[in-house]
Amino acid sequence: xxxxxxxxxxxxxxxxxxxxxxxxxxxxxxxxxxxxxxxxxxxxxxxxxxxxxxxxxxxxxxxxxxxxxxxxxxxxxxxxxxxxxxxxxxxxxxxxxxxxxxxxxxxxxxxxxxxxxxxxxxxxxxxxxxxxxxxxxxxxxxxxxxxxxxxxxxxxxxxxxxxxxxxxxxxxxxxxxxxxxxxxx
Length: 185
Known about the structure:
- The chain has eight helices and no strands.
- The chain is globular.
């Protein structure tokens, strides 16, 4: 089924040069916009001294990428263009395919913003962008659907581990020091 879905999506390549160009952009460059937006949200939390949010975002990223490394060693998976004659829009090395690095990074950053910062609307939008990046990676011929789903699963597990860590962190978000007028002499 994974191959059938991939081949169906990849068969759409060439129908519209505009869509092909858009998918190449989404597969290759959209992740940088997602990354900059997520870092902006997390950076704002740091600026506001919301250290709990910042730490939990960092835990999410570290946990997700540790899981990604383990999964990529456990499951050796060729890229679609290695085993199938397809229309490949992006040149890519014939290296490990599962789970998708792009999908893992995109979904992890989106979930970190959604779950651990105050930017819920942006987090939901980033999830939509992450799904677009994942779909574009399939469309352009560099990943199977299960590679992208594996990236989402990796991000969900990393976020779940960060939620467990959150149980052990103090609730207080920031420390504010206010000078009292009667103490200043």
